[in-house]
Amino acid sequence: FNTSVEPGTPESAFQRFPTHVPAYMTLNTTILNYPCPKTPGGITVLRVGSETSCAGDETRPTCNGPLPGPGPYRVKFLALADSKPLVETAWSDPITLRSAQPFSSIAAMGSRHSAGMIALTSILSILLAILLAGLVAMLVWGSDACSGSSTFNKPEAVTVRRYNTHHAYDQPAARL
Fold it and tell me: For the chain, what are the domain ranges?
């Protein structure tokens, strides 16, 4: 990697990486986009490979396109002024990216759920359906009781011949 190479030139273009250039420059930006963290221990994240639309566009040599494979890769940061390096970091440790598995290689059944778990889930689902059906039936039957078609629509008259309050025996009016 040659720090004298200016960003946006064919010698540092993303589209020529890794076959024709060993490193590329990307994300030409100002310091305003990467302020110092306001909280102790906070970090600012730079996601490499997040621009997929410019990967084949030769007019965007500073494209932050997807990396061609899992790596390993190393990164460094440069602070430039008028395309000249002012400060640079050391190279990072090698970073190997995780590779996604093809969809066809993912097992659809068998590896996570036992037969007992499936049977228990089925039984509980059936019991829940029965409970919900009973609840709906109670709501339908209960709505008929409020409309007056039930036998409980007329309250009976209740008479009490004698009622003692147990704590008021000293008052003669309370005794009947």
Answer: 1-98
